[in-house]
Design a protein that fits this description.
Elements: H1 5-8, H2 14-38, H3 45-52, H4 56-62, H5 66-79, H6 91-98, H7 102-131, H8 135-160, H9 171-181, H10 184-193, H11 198-213
Helix pairs in contact: 2-3, 2-5, 3-4, 5-7, 6-7, 7-8, 7-10, 7-11, 8-9, 9-11
Length: 217
C-alpha cells in the first residue's frame, strides 16, 4: 500500500506564521514600553500580556519569561528587527567590510551607532539599572557588554587592515576607546543630557574616532 507522503509532511501555514510574528511583535512592544516606564522590577508578565492584549500563556509561548522578555527587547533594539541578528549579518557591518578606507568605515559605523542608540539607549540603560538587583539581568548585561567589546576588536582589526591606523596605540586600547564612546552612557550624556541631535552625535563620533585612531590627525 503506497505511503501517504502528506501524512508525515510538517504542516506549514503562512497565515499562522504571520499571526505568530505579529503576536511576538506586539508582546515585544508592550514589554519595551513597560520596562521603560515601570522599570524591570515594576513590570510583570501579566502587565505585558494586558498591554499586548494577549493571554499570559501567549507571552510565554511567543517569547518567554520576564528575563527572556528583556533579553529579546534588547536584541530587537540592537538589530532593528524582532529577532537577534549576529553582527556579521548586519547590513551596516557588511558595508563597513566592503569599504576601502578607514575614513569610510568609521563614517558608516558612526552613522549606524547613532541610529541604533536612538532605539537601544533607553533599553540598555534600563537593563543596566535592573542588573544591579537581578541576577538574570546582570548576566545579560555582562553578556551583551562582552559581546560588544569583542565586536569592537573585530572592527579595529578591519580598520588596521587599511594601513591607516596609528602605530603608537595598541589594537586592544583602540577597541576599548571605541567601546566606551559607542556605549549608551555616552549617547545619554550628549543626546539626553546636553540635547545634541542624532546628526551632531554621529558627526562627533566620526570625528573623535578619526582623530584618535588614524594617522589623519
Amino acid at each position: 500500500m503506497p505511503r501517504d507522503v502528506n501524512a508525515t509532511r510538517p504542516y506549514h501555514s503562512p497565515k499562522r506564521a504571520e499571526r505568530a510574528a505579529a503576536t511576538r511583535s506586539a508582546v515585544l512592544r508592550a514589554a519595551r514600553d513597560l520596562f521603560l516606564s515601570e522599570g524591570y522590577a515594576g513590570t510583570t508578565v501579566a502587565a505585558v500580556a494586558a498591554r499586548a492584549e494577549v493571554a499570559v500563556d501567549t507571552v510565554y509561548a511567543a517569547v518567554g519569561r520576564k528575563p527572556a522578555l528583556l533579553r529579546e527587547v534588547a536584541e530587537a533594539a540592537i538589530s532593528g528587527t524582532d529577532h537577534a541578528v549576529p553582527a556579521a549579518q548586519r547590513e551596516y557591518v557588511r558595508r563597513i567590510r566592503e569599504a576601502s578606507t578607514a575614513g569610510e568605515k568609521i563614517a558608516i559605523y558612526a552613522r549606524a551607532v547613532a541610529a541604533i542608540q536612538d532605539r537601544l539607549g533607553p533599553v540598555y540603560l534600563a537593563l543596566r539599572e535592573a542588573a544591579t538587583s537581578d541576577a538574570d539581568c546582570r548576566a545579560l548585561w555582562q553578556t551583551i557588554s562582552s559581546r560588544r567589546a569583542a565586536n569592537m576588536r573585530d572592527f579595529v582589526a578591519d580598520l588596521r587592515a587599511t594601513g591607516e591606523l596609528r602605530t603608537d596605540v595598541s589594537d586592544d586600547e583602540m577597541a576599548d576607546l571605541v567601546w566606551s564612546t559607542n556605549g549608551p552612557e555616552h549617547w545619554a550624556l550628549l543626546v539626553h543630557e546636553r540635547g545634541w541631535t542624532t546628526e551632531r552625535f554621529e558627526a562627533s563620533l566620526a570625528d573623535t574616532w578619526t582623530r584618535t585612531l588614524t594617522d589623519a590627525r
